[in-house]
Amino acid sequence: MAAVNFAREEGLRPTMRGGAHGVAGHAVCDNGLMIDLSLMNSVTVDPAARVARVGPGAVLGDMDAATQKHGLATTGGVDSRTGVAGLTLGGGMGWLARSFGLALDNLIALEVVTADGQHRSASNDENPDLFWALRGGGGRFGVVTAFEFQLHKVGPEVAMAQVFHPGSDAAGALRFFRDYMAKAPDQVGAGAMVMTVPPVEPFPEDHHGKTAVALVGCYSGAMEEGMQVLQGIREYGNPILDVLTPIPYADLQQSFDQATPEGARYYWKSQYLSELSDEAIDTLVTHMESLPGPFTTIAFECMGGAISRVDPAETAFPHRKAPFNFGVWAGWAEPEYDDIAIGWTRKLHEAMTPYSTGGVYANYLDHDDSDKMKAAFGENHDRLQAIKKKYDPYGLFRIGGS
Ligand SMILES: Cc1cc2nc3c(=O)[nH]c(=O)nc-3n(C[C@H](O)[C@H](O)[C@H](O)COP(=O)(O)OP(=O)(O)OC[C@H]3O[C@@H](n4cnc5c(N)ncnc54)[C@H](O)[C@@H]3O)c2cc1C
């Protein structure tokens, strides 16, 4: 069977291409200036050196298209419309992260215009403090005008599994997923997602509109090996739909684009979990019965692997040891539903907080999370503040905290 596209309703299609979008519009502010870099979207690949030079206006789809021509890739996110710039400066978690680290771990060098108007290079050799801060500290240190990434051999096809369990078996499916991932090799990039079954084929009709748990994994290595390893993610319960297939890596990278259509309303909360305990799973299950809105997802993003082998102080991104990131991503259509959807999201997020590391992913902060800077930058917070003072003493770049 062909891979399932994560569209939530028939007819809904993303309208945005070639422009970046953040969870909460962090690139936009009142009484300030927004610099539109979307025309600077070139991607140049040196296949021999396995290096890509990427403009700040490129989206992940631009980067994947250019690098996959050479059978190469680096870690991105799971939605091809996301800007390379914002995603990388804050972290960059995607299917390849357990193999090759976060997007920011693959940075070789950056070019930046800092608050004093200077165009600087940042790498381990030039302005290393700025290079450190930009890898995880976000857009607070200047306008990045070029990214240089290390690439890896990936694809052009990778193995992918998508297994959908009924919501009634969520507790069992999530326990199984946790145990599978505890033994999975780094090449497995995976996530578990609670979602509403869309009213489309190939989902069985009697499950349309009901809650389901999707276990999704891909393997960034040899195809035969990947098909074998991912067979393991299917060995549980009675799924309502179950797919194991080779898929072009570039297609995998677009398979979630339709899960969050343009024009809908969104509210996100997330936190890293220290473990996926039985108690955490049971807490989730008591809250997940009716998801507010067709575009709502509750997600467990698997970390570990190469992400966890980088020292928390090596880059500004400190959350190296958490095995899972837990996200409550509510999406709905009608403004009059705002209070219900936002209230539901906050309630579930709070119920899961006892299982959290206390840390939060800077790239998933919503508009009301400005008090979470310490949680986002953890032990690296004070060093980031000092570097901010050096490169932007008057706080020219203010969005997302200074
Ligand atoms: C649908 C969706 C799916 C997502 N999936 C993932 C995922 O799989 N993995 C993941 O890690 N994250 C994911 N994210 C989160 C994503 O990483 C953040 O939203 C990120 O901020 C997006 O960056 P952007 O460039 O698209 O957004 P923007 O809003 O343009 O920028 C975000 C921030 O970065 C700053 N910035 C942008 N460009 C530059 C630059 N050139 N120089 C300096 N600062 C700059 C902006 O000022 C702003 O503060 C997802 C978000 C959405 C909405």
Strand-helix topology:
Blueprint: E1 43-46, E2 51-54, H1 60-68, E3 72-73, H2 84-90, H3 97-100, E4 107-113, E5 119-123, H4 128-134, E6 143-150, E7 152-153, E8 157-166, H5 170-183, E9 188-196, E10 211-219, H6 223-231, E11 241-248, H7 249-252, E12 265-273, H8 278-287, E13 297-302, E14 324-332, H9 338-352, H10 373-377, H11 381-391
Antiparallel strand pairs: 1-2, 2-6, 3-7, 4-5, 4-6, 8-10, 8-11, 9-10, 9-13, 12-14, 13-14
Helix pairs in contact: 5-8
Bound molecules: flavin-adenine dinucleotide.
The site of flavin-adenine dinucleotide has 30 residues, from helix 2 and strand 6.
Summarize this entry quickly.
By secondary structure, this protein is of the alpha+beta class. The chain has 11 helices and 14 strands. The site of flavin-adenine dinucleotide has 30 residues, from helix 2 and strand 6.
What features would you describe in this structure?
With 402 residues, the chain is an alpha+beta fold. It folds into 2 domains: 21-153, Uridine Diphospho-n-acetylenolpyruvylglucosamine Reductase, domain 3, CATH 3.30.465; 157-364, Vanillyl-alcohol Oxidase, Chain A, domain 3 (3-Layer(aba) Sandwich), CATH 3.40.462.20. 24% of the residues lie in helices and 23% in strands. It contains 11 helices and 14 strands. It has a 7-stranded antiparallel sheet with strand order 11-8-10-9-13-14-12. Strand 4 (107-113) and strand 5 form a beta hairpin. Helix 5 packs antiparallel against helix 8 (278-287). The longest helix has 15 residues, at 338-352. The protein starts with 42 loop residues before the first strand and ends in an 11-residue tail after the last helix. It binds flavin-adenine dinucleotide. Flavin-adenine dinucleotide (FAD) binds at residues 20-23, 26-27, 37, 56, 77-79, 82-83, 85-87, 89-94, 138-139, 143-144, 260, 363, 399-400.
